[in-house]
Specification:
The structure is a homodimer. Chain A is an alpha+beta fold. Chain A is 33% helix and 27% strand. Chain A is built from five helices and six strands, in the order ααβααβββββα. The first copy, chain A, has a three-stranded antiparallel beta sheet with strand order 1-3-2. In chain A, strand 2 and strand 3 (75-79) form a beta hairpin. The termini of chain A are far apart. In chain A, 26% of the residues are buried. Chain A binds chain B through residues 67, 69-71, 73-75, 94, 96, 99, 107, 109-110, 113-135, 138-139, and chain B through 67, 69-71, 73-75, 94, 96, 99, 107, 109-110, 113-135, 138-139. Strand 6 (122-133) of chain A pairs antiparallel with strand 6 (122-133) of chain B. Chain A binds a DNA duplex through residues 14-20, 36-37, 47-51, 53-55, 58, 73.
Chain lengths: 140, 140
Amino acid sequence: MNTKVHDILRRNQLSVTASREKILNLFLTNTRALAHADIEHKAGERFDRVTVYRTLQTFVEKGILHTIPTADNSVKYALCKNDCFEGHHHDNHYHFICSVCGKTECLEDFVIPSVKLPKEYLANNVEIVVNGVCGICRKK
Amino acid sequence: MNTKVHDILRRNQLSVTASREKILNLFLTNTRALAHADIEHKAGERFDRVTVYRTLQTFVEKGILHTIPTADNSVKYALCKNDCFEGHHHDNHYHFICSVCGKTECLEDFVIPSVKLPKEYLANNVEIVVNGVCGICRKK
DNA sequence: TAACTCAGTGCAACTATGTTGCAAAATATA
DNA sequence: TATATTTTGCAACATAGTTGCACTGAGTTA
């Protein structure tokens, strides 16, 4: 198994276990975001559902993954960039979901525009999800 | 029951039934967005869960309600403004969720900023959810 | 490398959430 | 008011997510 996977786990004070290695590896080898169900099935010899839930939860807590809410009420998970690894998120990018191929991706290079709020309101976090058609699907 | 409720239903070619009246009335008397569970419980004498699901689905299809995805994987529903009533949405506003009181509201007066996308990409719909603290909770 | 400790896993059982088919009831229309 | 059509409620099911507990396996120390 990839030594990078091992490093990420250790850097976050997590024991290196088979399920964590496999699940984390899925994210490193996929550019797109994955839903819980994707993980449960893609993991080949699949793990107990409970293990997948707990592993994802742990990764989110540690800042290894972040969640992307989607309109159809399913949460997807995606890798955080390196500067999230220390435990605090820098989720200043937004997300794109292709309505044709279903691909969900982080648009890392685009910074969230500032949003206006009513007076007295305080914003902690701004989630932006763009639904549309990706470049590959438009060419078909 | 409110005659306004009756009007909205008829304008959308929907039969006026007790459950539709009650559920729609909940939205008219609440400024905040409601989750499925809220509706099921707030409706007092509660309706069958299936009826609530189907009623909400119908309202969304007709453009009476729109959905707001939240990070915790629960979809909330909110009334559309009058110009949605004819069946096509004008969801050019964004949403705010207060992390203290849980209130979810539509910020009708703020227009979605334009977002940049990679070349070739096409945006159909942009969902923005701002998490933070509302004015009332900040003063406490 | 053997033994110990504790985090992590898997199972079972459960709750919550959402869906479908169908018969009964209510609504709209003439 | 009678009839055609919608809507509802029930039952049964499917999927998603949670909790407690016993066991396994990873990390650590000698």
